[in-house]
Amino acid sequence: MLKPTATATRELVSLDGLWRFAVGTAAGDQPWLGPFDGTLEAAVPASYNDLFVDPAIRDHVGWVWYQRTVRVPRGWAGERILVRVDAATHAGKVYADDRLVAEHSGGYTPFEADITDVVAAGDEFRLTIGVSNELTNTTIPPGTITVTPDGRRQQKYLHDFYNYSGLARSVWLYSVPPVRVSDIAVVTDVDGRTGVIDYTVTTTAPASVRVSLRDAAGDEVAAGPGERGSLRVPQVTLWQPGRAYLYELVVEIHDGDTVLDQYRMPVGVRTVEVRGTQFLINGQPFYFTGFGKHEDTAVRGKGHDNAYLVHDFQLMDWIGANSFRTSHYPYAEEVMDFADRHGIVVIDETAAVGLNLFIEGGIGRGDKRPTFSPETMNDETRNAHAQALRELIARDKNHPSVVMWCVSNEPSSIEEGAREYFAPLVALTRELDPTRPVTYASFMFATPGNDRIADLFDVLGLNRYHGWYMANGDLATAEADLEAELTAWAAAHGKPIIMSEYGADTMPGLHSVWDIPWTEEYQTAFLEMHHRVFDRIEAMVGEHVWNFADFRTSNGIHRVDGNKKGVFTRDRLPKAAAHMLRRRWRQIGSTKPQAPRSRA
C-alpha cells in the first residue's frame, strides 16, 4: 500500500486534530449511527487512555468511537476519494455518514476506504471511526478477556507494555486519478560501481508507464518504460549506515503527452547479506549498536509525535547508536522515513509478542497451558500472524533503512508445536521478500538444546537478562553464565548473533558504592559486563540495549511506574549508563570491537 503523498496528480488533506469521542456500550461492536451527543473530545493522533481522568475510559475494554465532519475539496470532482487510517489499535471500522466503508484487524498497519460513491466534491460528510482494543487468543498480539464478579470486563495480555488504544497515528483524506499507480516494489543491487534498481509497478488498469530516477540534485540519472524493468546508475552513491543518500523514483502513467498519474518515492541503493557469522551491508561487516524502543510518551501513549521523533533520533545520534528494533510492532511510517533520510538501520518487527504461555503460569510452576493448541494459539492465530507479516512487508519493503524482518518477540520456541507454527511464517516472509534476512528474538528459557526453531532463521536474536532476572546482583556469576550460553549458541548454529535485549531496571538518581540492583551504578556495571562478553564472542554482530527510554506497563507488583530499564527516563533525561554507552558506541562506530578471549 503506497503512502499518500501530494504530487501533480494527487492531493491530500490531514484530518488530524480534535475529534468528538464516545465510549462504546454493552452492545459491543454495534455501529454508532448518527451524530454524537456527548461533550468528550479526543486528540488524533494519540492513544485515548491517558487523555481523560475517568478510569472507566482508561480501563474500558471494547469499542470506542471517534467522529468529525469532513469537507471534500471542491476541486476533487472526477477523482477517486479515499480515507486512510494509519493505525487503529487493535481493530477499526470506518463509516462515511452511516455507511460502513472499511474494516481492519491489526493495530499497527494502515488501511483505507474508497468513498467516491458515498461523498461528493465540495460537500460535507460525517466520518466515524470505531476502534477496539480487544485481544484474544486469535489476535496479534494475543490476549484474553475476563469478566469480574461485578460484571467488569478486563483485558489480560502477555506483553509487558501498556495496551494503549485508539487512533495513535494520522488519518487522511486524499484524492487519486481513476487510472493510477497502486503499488511499487523496488529491489536494489550493486554491480561494481553501478547501482541496479529493479522495479515493479502495479496499476489499476492497463497503462503506459514511465519510470525515472533522479539524484539528490534533481537530475535524471536513469529512466525506462514499462511496469517492470531495471535501472542502472553508473558511479552510484550508496545508502550507507550513518551516511544516507536517497535518489527519487518518479513513476508516471501517460496517455500520449498527458500525465494521468505521478507518484514519487525515495530510493536508497544498498545491499544486505548474511555470510557465515557476519552481517554485511554493502559488502562490509556491520555491527549493530542501539536499542529496542517503544512508541511511548506521557499523555499521548503510543500517539505519534514529530517533536519526540526528532528528539529521539537526536539522542540516538548523541549516544552513537546506529540502529534500533521496532519492538514490538511496526512503528509509524514517519519513523521509517526519518530513518531512511538519516542512515539509521532498522530491524522491523511484527506485533507478534506474547506467543508464550510457558511463562504465563509463572517461572517454576507446573500448571502451564500449551502455547500451541486448538484452544490457545492455533491455526486462526497463525493466519492473523501471516496477515500481519503481509501488511508489514507490503508497507515497509522499499525502505533502505530496513535490513531485517523480525517475525516474533519471545515466542515459546521450546514447546511442542512451535516449529509447525513458525516454519510456514518464515517461509512466507522469505517468499514476500527474498532479499532481507529473517530473525526472531528468543526468550531466556530457550537454549541450543531445546529451541525448536532457531535453524529456520538467518540471524539469532537473543533476549537475555543474566545479572537481572538470573543471578541478580551477582555480575561475576552472570558474566560466566552469559559467556557460556553465547558460546554454546555460536557453536550450535554458526550464525550471526545479536543481543536483541539486555538491560536492568534503574531508578534515576538512586546511587550506591556497591553493586546494588536498581542503582545507576549497577545498570552501568551490568551493561559493561555484557560488553566484555560480546567482545569475546566472534559470532556477535550487535547489541541492542533494552530499552531506549522508560515506558508505561500494565499493573504489576514488579513494575513501579512502568518499566525502568531505559537508559533515558520517560521524559528523555540520561541516566549514568547513557554516558557509558556514548563512550563505547562513538568509539567503535559500526565495527565489531575485539577483546582477548580470557577475562582480564
UniProtKB/TrEMBL annotation:
Enzyme Commission number: 3.2.1.31
Ranges for domain Glycosyl hydrolases family 2 sugar binding: 14-177
Coiled coil location: none
Assigned keywords, A-Z: Glycosidase, Hydrolase
Gene3D superfamilies in UniProt: Galactose-binding domain-like, Glycosidases, Immunoglobulins
Pfam families: Glyco_hydro_2, Glyco_hydro_2_C, Glyco_hydro_2_N
GO annotation terms (biological process): carbohydrate metabolic process; glucuronoside catabolic process
Family of the protein in this entry: Belongs to the glycosyl hydrolase 2 family.
Protein name: Beta-glucuronidase
Organism: Nocardia flavorosea
Gene: uidA
